[in-house]
Amino acid sequence: MIDDVDRIMTVMTVAFDPAFGEAWNRRQVEDALHIGNCHYYLIGEKGQQAVDGASAAGFSLSRTGFQEEELLLLGVSPEFRRNGLGRSLLDQLRLAAATRGAKRLLLEMRRGNPAESLYRSFGFFPIGERRDYYRTASGQRIDAITFTCDIA
Ligand SMILES: CC(C)(COP(=O)(O)OP(=O)(O)OC[C@H]1O[C@@H](n2cnc3c(N)ncnc32)[C@H](O)[C@@H]1OP(=O)(O)O)[C@@H](O)C(=O)NCCC(=O)NCCS
Q1: Sheet containing 38-43: which strands, arranged edge to edge?
Q2: Can you name the CATH fold of 2-150?
């Protein structure tokens, strides 16, 4: 588990643009995993699950609620992008969430994040927004958009 947090943080450090302040620190990840309703998945560069200390190219972190699963973070190291890993992480999340009883997935995204085209092509659609919810490192305000995706 400590080792897995290391590997999550290795991807976190390179995947998230510091301008948007979206990356979590190690303490936040550890706290989320301690609570017990959060789950993570590490993926290797060839799309396989990265287990037993194998190096990870991406990860997802999600939180289980009543009949829903919220995607908290999705990150793929820049060198491994546009190779289907992000979509594979969503596929895995949908399967795992279904086995935990979820009827839908949820996520919140800053307006303009290029990840939107991945989410939409996967089946997510917007259901709401919070105006000026995020603040960038330079002080700019950006809306948060909430997306959902039904689990068939
Ligand atoms: C979002 C992210 C996880 C996508 O990972 P990925 O492994 O590159 O995604 P995939 O290769 O599975 O992409 C599948 C499809 O989604 C779309 N897509 C993914 N990233 C895209 C981008 N930056 N711009 C436009 N379309 C994109 C494309 O249609 C792509 O298919 P294609 O490559 O055949 O055109 C990755 O870009 C990332 O880590 N971004 C920074 C962190 C972040 O913003 N995470 C989301 C918010 S928590």
Answers
A1: 38-43, 58-65, 68-76, 104-110, 141-150, 125-135
A2: Aminopeptidase (3.40.630)
From the alpha carbon of 85, which atom of ligand 1 is closest? Answer: 7
Give residue 133 CA to ligand 1 midpoint distance, Å: 22
Instruction: Kindly compute the dihedral angle of the four CA atoms of residues 66, 69, 71, 76, in this order, to the nearest 10 degrees.
Output: 150
74 lines ligand 1 (CB under 6 A): yes
What average pLDDT values come out for the chain (152 residues) when binned by 10 residues? 90 96 96 95 98 94 97 98 98 98 98 97 98 94 97 85
